[in-house]
Design a protein that fits this description.
The chain is α+β, with helices and mostly antiparallel strands and 91 residues long. Helices cover 44% and strands 30% of the residues.
Length: 91
């Protein structure tokens, strides 16, 4: 399922216009992304949670040339499935 599929499914279920449904879904994902960008955590009980992991910088190696390079520290979003989601997927 992609974002367009989600919009169409919600539109059918809620009986809203496609424009309103699209605006709702866009707003939902924008708010999640903003919370993560601010260093927060997004949690949907039983379904999943998202948080930001911070990775330290390190000295790596370019596989083509063998030269040592510095890899900068970075942040990346991390997804963790909730108990109920795990049960539904595993059936």
């Amino acid at each position: 399922m992609n974002k367009l599929d989600l919009i169409e499914k919600l539109q059918e279920e809620a009986g809203l216009t496609k424009t309103k449904t699209k605006a709702f879904v866009e707003r939902f994902f924008d708010e999640m992304a903003e919370a993560l960008a601010d260093g927060g955590r997004v949690e949907m009980r039983g379904f999943c949670s998202f948080h930001v992991k911070e990775y330290d910088g390190y000295t790596g190696r370019n596989p083509k040339t063998g030269d040592r390079i510095k890899v900068a520290p970075k942040k990346a979003p991390f997804f963790k499935a909730g108990r109920e989601l795990k049960k539904r997927v595993d059936k």
